[in-house]
TrEMBL record:
Tree of life domain: Bacteria
Identification of the protein by name: LysR family transcriptional regulator
GO biological process: DNA-templated transcription
InterPro entries, A to Z: LysR-type_TF_proteobact-type, LysR_HTH_N, LysR_subst-bd, WH-like_DNA-bd_sf, WH_DNA-bd_sf
Pfam family, one: LysR_substrate
Sequence similarity: Belongs to the LysR transcriptional regulatory family.
Molecular function in Gene Ontology: DNA-binding transcription factor activity; sequence-specific DNA binding
Boundaries of every HTH lysR-type domain copy: 5-62
Organism, scientific name: Litorivicinus lipolyticus
């Protein structure tokens, strides 16, 4: 037979120690005073010590009782906090998504306030990392991934079509000849300069290969600084294009448009109401964003090509 105190006995003991009266503890617990007294006696017999000093109808804790009460109170407080957290999580809507850092900061983060205001009861967690989620091992509901959209075994839904074209600062455009251009590459981009020139059937001129950055944010900033020409996503560079910190380098070369950003999740997640609401919101925002980009390209006489 187990010699460990039962949880029931500990609950009864903690209540008596806190209230100082068996009858009061019994009332709070919804049991008879004799049931409480029996549990206290069983606990004392098990421990081999007296937990209370009894003076007529008054009870006070012994030294051992004080030690046991401190431990029990701490344990029950921890359990109650866990219970309240679990209940709160069950009552609230929770979504965990993962996005690439540049997309999270430059596009999604700027628009999230609209979603949050529309869903004030949601618990939303966004992790920014370039690493795709292993849905078998990680507790993540959804990835917003940049790439080809062909991840096997997962639902792949395109939420944003992107347009890529060369861009630079107005000052760089004004002072640099085409054959003197310095080209900036984003190493994580789906379309880089070598592919761009192949699509254009062009032979590169100028300085290529010296400036390569892992993050689009870094490459875009260097172009804004007047370092060179970056081949970048209009989605990620939209703020700089909108306020003319960046301008098209060679509008006559056009822009490549392709499905770039994808909502990715396991098939079992795809029909969850919460996930569906978030994906639909991202796609609606993406559609509005694409319309703005198309208007920009039209205004600058940049033709659209499919890679």
């Amino acid at each position: 037979m187990s010699r460990d105190p039962s949880l029931n006995a500990m609950v009864y003991f903690e209540s008596v120690a806190r209230t100082g009266r068996v009858a009061k503890a019994a009332e709070q617990l919804g049991v008879s005073p004799s049931a409480v007294s029996q549990q206290i006696k069983l606990l004392e017999n098990l421990l081999g010590v007296a937990l209370f000093r009894r003076d007529k109808r008054e009870l006070s804790l012994t030294l051992e009782g004080e030690q046991m009460f401190t431990a029990a109170s701490s344990a029950f407080t921890t359990l109650d906090a866990a219970r309240r957290r679990i209940t709160r999580q069950r009552e609230r809507q929770q979504l965990i998504a993962r996005v690439s850092p540049s997309f999270g900061v430059r596009w999604l983060g700027q628009r999230l306030v609209g979603f949050i205001d529309a869903h004030p009861d949601w618990d939303l967690r966004i992790d920014a990392t370039a690493d795709p989620t292993n849905f078998d091992r990680e507790v993540v509901d959804l990835d917003l991934r940049y790439g080809h959209g062909q991840w096997p075994g997962l639902v792949n839904q395109c939420v944003i079509q992107d347009s890529v074209f060369p861009m630079c600062s107005p000052d760089y455009l004004a002072r640099t000849a085409v054959d003197e251009a310095r080209y900036i590459d984003s190493t994580q981009a789906a379309i880089q300069w070598d592919r761009w020139w192949a699509e254009q059937s062009m032979t590169p001129t100028g300085d290529y290969g010296a400036l390569r950055f892992e993050r689009s944010s870094m490459a875009i900033q260097q172009a804004v600084n007047g370092v060179g020409v970056v081949l970048e996503s209009a989605t990620l560079a939209w703020d700089e294009l909108s306020d003319a910190r960046l301008v098209p380098w060679a509008p006559e070369q056009g822009a490549l448009r392709f499905p770039a950003y994808w909502a990715v999740c396991p098939p079992g997640h795809a029909n969850r109401r919460l996930l569906r609401a978030f994906i639909d919101w991202v796609q609606a925002e993406g559609t509005a964003h694409e319309s703005a980009i198309q208007a920009y390209l039209l205004a600058h006489a940049i033709r659209i090509q499919q890679p």
